[in-house]
Request: fold
Amino acid sequence: MTARVALGLGLLLFQSAIYALGPAKDVSLILICAVYCGVAWTVRLLANPRPSGKAFDAQWIAIGVVDILAFGLLQIAQGSGINYAPLFVLPVLMAAVLGSLSLAMGSAAGVTLLLFAYATWMSLQVPADTTAQFLQAALTGAGCFAIAFLANQIAIRLADVELLAQRSQLAERVQRQVNELVIETLTDGILVLDSRGVVRAANPAARHLLGAQSAPGTRSFSLTALDGWQELVNLMALSYSDKVARQADVTIRHLGQGPRRVRVRTQLATAPGGDGETLCVMFMQDQREMEARMRADKLVSMGRMSAAVAHEIRNPLAAIAQANALLDEDLQEPRHKQLTQMVQQNTRRLERIVEEVLDISRVQQREDTTTSSVLELSSEAARICHDWRQQTHSEQRLRLHLSAQSIQVRFEFEHLRRILVNLLDNALRYSGGQTGAIEVSVSNLISGQGALRVWSNGQPLDQSVERHLFEPFFSSESRSTGLGLYICRELCEEQGASITYLRTQRQISGRLIDGNEFLVVFQTNQG
Reply:
């Protein structure tokens, strides 16, 4: 439509120049060009283009008819030797590109008939040799048919190529989004650096490993900005100098935090775009995460062997405990009594370890249970806490907040006792010695489920410890097996309950105190 307006303006200026400079003063051609220019401008402003289809489009047909009539009138009304026949290519091209093949051939046929009509009219006006005029009309018509067919085929192929390109772009965009999503959700860190140490891309895991200072507002940042990242810079420099992949264990030191051990593997790659720049891709693995996976592998490998070994240890251990008890009855001296007490304490510790290892075996071999005992959560929790207070002499430390309503939950009492005692032992180990340092509460949640909370005023857990809190063989103490919380979680999941860790506050002596809370959510008898 813009080309039609430009053509109309060009014709109008051309005819105006001929009128001003030529001897003949015929304004008919100027009027035709002016009307055509006005119609082209109106169509340019008001036309409503639609996708081409198989059926004839009245809008394009009307526009093509206007062009053919305008150029035909110019050809008829011209008073000089100017040939306006090449202008007929415009409506033929428009019909061939924007319309169907039938519309293109129809436009070429209309132009050809109009040229033959003009040649016939000229032969009647000048009865001379008109062979050249008919020959010119035939050649022009044949050219219009050829242009119509070729332009339509090229337009169809271009449309197919454009559609294929759009589909390819869509597939590429989807693939890129999937790749980005996979990289974003990877637990291993991925860094892409150039030779200057500028990070071109980094997934969230890599930013987390580098520390909070590595996540500025912009996507790229310099790895040489902090001294704590210097070992990564050195490893990158070695990879560029040797032009080979490297692997090493490096230490990342965070400002205000402890050092983090990371296993880093580098790979050199050529940047996309054809500029030949080589980028260094770093794959980073947290050593703590690797150790956690190794601990999980250890758990799988234990299996029946651990249960058999525990059973074998159990029998001589019981004999040692019994012999020590008999020996203690005959001893009178305090020094000897102290030795038997040490033997008794360590045998109890060994018994506890054996029981935990056996529990692991039972958890692995236990089948899903469809039914569980129904117990009243408040009363049973109070009974367990009462026994635990007497055994540990913690009457002042432990506070109870029980629900006045009866909360019936589906859970085995022995499992509840083991879970609650384990949580209370942990709370006693890490809490302060003041009154009310440990709190056990039972309540109903909004969802209707029963909730058991064990809170203590201990110090906040390190993020690395919290992340692996319920994993087997993970403990912050060297004398602990790290199986207690894992067994608690397995016992809860077996009967449809859940256990989580929270950092919450409690009011003690009129002050809000931060502490660690373990929340156990049970399935009620109604649910």
